[in-house]
Amino acid sequence: MHFLYLFTRQAYGHSLAREAVDMALATAAFDQKISLVFLQDAIFQLLTAKDATIIEAKPHSGIINALPLYDIEKIFYLKEDREARQLSQNSLVAHASEISAAKLHELLRSADRVQSF
After folding, report:
1. What is the pLDDT of residues 57-90, one digit of tens each?
2. pLDDT tens sequence across 16-65
3. Torsion on CA atoms 74, 79, 82, 83, rounded to nearest 10
4. I need a surface site. Which of 40, 53, 63, 73 has the fewest CB within 10 A?
């Protein structure tokens, strides 16, 4: 079964983003196929620790960097979202991949379960 988790908001000011990551980790514990996509302002969750200073908040890169250890290796963001927020690829964690809107639609079609946070 393929689970697709869509993150759409910044992680700051609420616990929803952390709860979503916890849900993904719990799903991974059952050896399920998982993809994460960080959309819109959620892309800020992918900032490296040194680059998170631009949003004046504590970075979430620690937990994001740990995801591959739990076999969550398909981590994506939209090129359009990165460009709209004037972020360079180098300012985002290295294991997150840039995808197009067309690739996102493919992921949506291939997923058995989609959850948005």
Report:
1. 555 557 888 899 999 999 999 999 999 999 999 9
2. 778 888 999 999 999 999 999 999 999 988 988 655 555 455 555 578 88
3. 170
4. 53
Say which DSSP state 5 is in.
Answer: E
Strands 96-99 and 33-38: unpaired
- Burial of 100-110, coded b for 16+ CB within 10 Å and e otherwise, reads eeeebeebeee
Q: For the beta carbon of residue 58, count every other beta carbon within 10 angstroms.
A: 11
Cα 66 from Cα 24, distance rounded (Å): 12
DSSP state of 49: T
Residue 43 structure tokens: 């892309």
Spatial separation of the C-alpha atoms in residues 78 and 99, rounded to whole Å: 5
- Cα dist from 106 to 82, 90, 110, 112, 115, whole Å: 20, 26, 6, 12, 15
Backbone angles phi, psi at 110, to 5 degrees: -85, -15
What's phi and psi for 3, nearest 5 deg? Answer: -105, 130
Question: Does the domain formed by 2-116 have CATH 3.40.1260.10?
Answer: yes
